[in-house]
Amino acid sequence: MNQSTEPSTAFIPFAKPSLGREEEEAVLRIMRSGWLTTGAETLAFEKEFAAFIGSPHALAVNSATSGLHLALEALGIGPGDTVITSAYTFTSSAAVILHLGADVVFCDTAPDSYNMDPKALEKLLATTRNCRAIITVHIGGLPCDLDAILPLAARYGCAVIEDAAHAFPVHSGTAWAGTRGTIGVYSFYATKTITTGEGGMIVTADAKLAARMSAMRMHGIDREVWNRYTSKSASWRYSVTEAGYKYNMPDILAAIGRVQLGKALRFAEERTNIAKLYDEAFSGLPGLRLPPRLTAISTAGNIGHAWHLYSLRVGMDGNGPDRDQFVEALMQAGVGVSVHFIPLHIMPYYADRYKLKPEDLPNTLNIFNHTLSLPIWQGMTTTQASTVATTVRRVATEGADGQ
Ligand SMILES: Cc1ncc(COP(=O)(O)O)c(C=O)c1O
Fold first, then answer.
1. What is the per-residue pLDDT across 47-96, written as a single tens digit (0 to 9) for each?
2. Considering the chain, what percentage of its residues have pLDDT values greater than 70?
3. Where in the chain is the domain with CATH 3.40.640.10?
4. Is the CB of 189 under 6 A from ligand 1?
5. Exposed site from 75, 91, 164, 250, fewest CB < 10 Å?
6. Is 260 in the pocket of ligand 1 (CB under 6 A)?
7. Is residue 303 within 8 Å of residue 52, measured between CB atoms?
8. Of ligand 1's atoms, which has the minimum distance to the CA of residue 137?
9. Residue to probe by mutation, ligand 1, list 107, 144, 186, 189, most atoms within 8 Å of CB
């Protein structure tokens, strides 16, 4: 958290990227180099990311959505298959399943968590035909219960894709979230802890899957040919072995990503400090519940929450404020807030396609009706965070309509 104590009267945005002189210089360096698309810079970013996260293979892509699509494709998911994911997530986690002609089955959230409920998952696995994979999401940056999910997946022969779009950097046990499943996918979208504007990274320990995803992100070409126009030694010959996609990350974005990666641990600390300030301001306030978190973090020094989102719950016990009015009151008071997530099973496309009713996933629906996400971003000043906290306290105690 930035220690500035200047008074904050301006609107406090919900999210803001933290980009400085180093990122600007990195972009200029690439622009002046004459090489804009995927090249040496992207390869360097992949290498550095792989080293940071402790994974043998890291593949840079143009979004996490592309990464999730490539992951399912490499696993051979197709028509007739089913993939289970959370309903309490962004549409990408499910849309990629439909892109491949497979079907999605939505799992409910655990009662005091925003993540997939392993008990509900176990029931679904016992009744779902042809389930080939599980896409589990670390919602808001809180690691999901992989200690329960991974053995269940193994018992039913399912691959696990960790949708780690919100989960960088955060530990899951003693490993980094995103590295424990078959494949993990991170997002570098503009609101994420480290950003390239748009972008993502896939990690896996499986060399065959990595080779497939690497080829498919680049037109289904059988080898790296990115330097065929500039290198004297590069051959112009290549073979297209599949009808692949165009999901590569350009060097300009990779240059930003490398600088951001170097700042990731500091960013995580800043976000944690903001979350602490909020926790202290809100604990014990009637009608509010703090975001769920892991009760025990096994190894000292581990990061237990990436704090991509700080999502409060209001009115859970039937005696608190109405969420929508709460959001409105905060926005009117100059605090940018958002709601995560409108569950997928109530979105028209999925509800119509699978004939789903809102109450089919009661925990998901309940959480959705009561959550709101507060501003949390590195570079936020102490004054800004305190202003958010004071405003939330005021709205919570006076009522959203000021009564
Ligand atoms: C849970 C989740 N998964 C996947 C994505 C897709 O990320 P991207 O925008 O990088 O495609 C998002 C987007 O924010 C997300 O929230």
1. 999 999 999 999 999 999 999 999 999 999 999 999 999 999 999 999 99
2. 95
3. 21-261
4. yes
5. 91
6. no
7. no
8. 1
9. 189
Is 192 noted as a catalytic residue in this protein? yes
CB of 131 closer than 6 A to ligand 1?
Answer: no
CA of 400 to the centre of ligand 1 (A): 31
- For residue 146, the CA-to-ligand 1 centroid distance in Å is 20
- Ligand 1 within 6 A of 172 CB? no
Per-residue pLDDT for 203 more than 70?
A: yes
| Residue 246 confidence (pLDDT) | 97
CATH topology for 21-261? Aspartate Aminotransferase; domain 2 (3.40.640)
Which amino acid belongs to residue 145? D
Verify whether ligand 1 is closer than 6 Å to residue 104 (CB atom): no
* Band of residue 2 on the pLDDT scale cut at 50, 70, 90: low
pLDDT digits (tens, 9 = 90+) for 88-103: 999 999 999 999 999 9
> What is the DSSP-derived secondary structure letter of residue 250?
P
Enter the tokens of residue 2: 């930035």
One CATH from 1.10.8.60, 3.20.20.70, 3.90.1150.10, 3.40.605.10 for 264-398:
3.90.1150.10
Instruction: Please give the full DSSP string across 328-364, using - where no structure is assigned.
Output: HHHHHTTB--B-----GGGSHHHHHHHT--GGGSHHH
Prediction pTM value: 0.95
Read off the pLDDT of residues 273-325 as tens digits, 9 standing for 90 and up: 999 999 999 998 988 999 998 765 555 568 999 999 999 999 987 777 899 99
First-last CA distance in the chain: 33
**Residue 169 Cβ contacting ligand 1 at under 6 Å:** no
- Tell me which H or E stretch contains 57: strand 57-61
Please give the full DSSP string across 145-189, using - where no structure is assigned.
-HHHHHHHHHHTT-EEEEEETT-TT-EETTEETTSSSSEEEEE-B
Report CA(198)–ligand 1 centroid distance (Å).
10
